[in-house]
Amino acid sequence: MGRVIENAPVLVEELDRRNAALAAAPGDRDAEMAFWQAAAQLGIWYVVNRGTPEAPQPSGFAQPGIGNLLGVYSTRERAGAVAGPGSTFLGVPMPQALDWLASFGQHGVAGIVMDHPGPWLPLGNLSFLKRWAPAAQAAVSSQPVVASPEVQAATDAYVATKDDRAYDEVVRRIAGGDLLVVLDPQGDGTTPTSIVNHRDERLLLAFTDSTRLGAFYDGKAVQVQQRAGADLLRLVGQDFDVLILDPQHPSSFAATPDSIRNVLG
């Protein structure tokens, strides 16, 4: 997916305009085609993940008379509103999203619904949308994305005070929030990137926002995923030795297995 990115607002606005036109003329084939053309031209389709980071499973809805439909969303905010507290969502780039969603047909899924309760499309028709899918990332914009403002505020407070209670609050905020990670290009597609320090410790890297992530990677093309902080903390002591939050930033924070156990038990 490259950098942490969003669908360009002008494309989302056009999608909403065409959705309103379709709602005003139900059954109009031209209006329906125009809507799905706008949907296909988005750079990213968002889904709520009801599975695990290793085996993502888009959430869906049972539609009487049709069957199970997978929910697809045009913005992070719309997906996040459906995901709810403690849940995660994924931003899947186009046109890869089309093939991935189509693969769920073998599990009995009938189609997708865009921005529920919006229009729906049979899975078998997803391949036709490829003609409109963006050829480049002009369909997205690199607006700053803050995954967890609560965690960011807590780390800033800890750096200012260096107080034990402030440290513990950061750990608790991480456990209850989401963070951004860069996927290891040599991994299995779900493994977060890590580095090894001079003590041979494996450091798991995570970020509170896209600006800090972008500064660390200095504009390199990376694949970014939003992950639950609680899941990342569980990896510390299991697959990694230390969690480093916002590395090289003035508010950088480190959590070790012992410190995590002391706070969370």
TrEMBL record:
Stated name of the protein? SseB protein N-terminal domain-containing protein
Report domain SseB protein N-terminal positions.
153-261
- Organism of derivation: Nocardioides caeni
Please name the Pfam families in this protein's record.
SseB
The record's listing under InterPro entries reads:
SseB_N (IPR009839)
